[in-house]
Amino acid sequence: MTEFRGPTATRLRNFVREVQDGKCILCPLPITNIHHIQPWRKFPELLLDLKNMVGACRSHHLLLESMPYDQQHQLIVETRCQQ
Ligand SMILES: [Zn+2]
Predict the structure, then answer these.
(1) Nearest CA to 4 among 31, 33, 30, 28?
(2) Which residue of 14, 28, 47, 60 is most buried, as measured by CB atoms within 10 A?
(3) Spans of all domains in the chain
(4) What is the 3-state secondary structure (H, E, C) of 40-79?
(5) How many CB atoms sit inside 10 A of residue 31's CB?
């Protein structure tokens, strides 16, 4: 698989939405994107790995996309701990 599509991707999307209660990992806005923490174009084996996925709103998806893995991880952990 080279794209995050199809029945398995849909199930994973729905699961991420459910565990995050439909809300972005970093704010209360609704999830618009499933973000892959490690980019799946670089790590295709992580395309369907739930541990590599978070739900994000549009702007946080763009923010996370622009950050290296360690910074994303730190930001997510810090945000989750404050909530
Ligand atoms: Zn957000």
Answers:
(1) 33
(2) 60
(3) 6-82
(4) CCCCHHHCCCHHHEEEECHHHHHHHHCCCHHHHHHHHHHH
(5) 22
The CA 30 to ligand 1 mean position distance, Å, reads: 8
Separate counts of helices (H) and strands (E) for the chain:
3, 2
- Local confidence band at 2 (pLDDT 50, 70, 90 cut-offs): low
Q: What's residue 81's pLDDT?
A: 85
pLDDT score, position 59: 98
Q: How buried is residue 50: exposed, middle or buried, by Cβ count under 10 Å (0-12/13-18/19+)?
A: exposed
Tokens 């622009």 map to which residue? 66
Surrounding residues of ion ligand 1, Cβ less than 5 A: 24, 26-27, 29, 57, 60
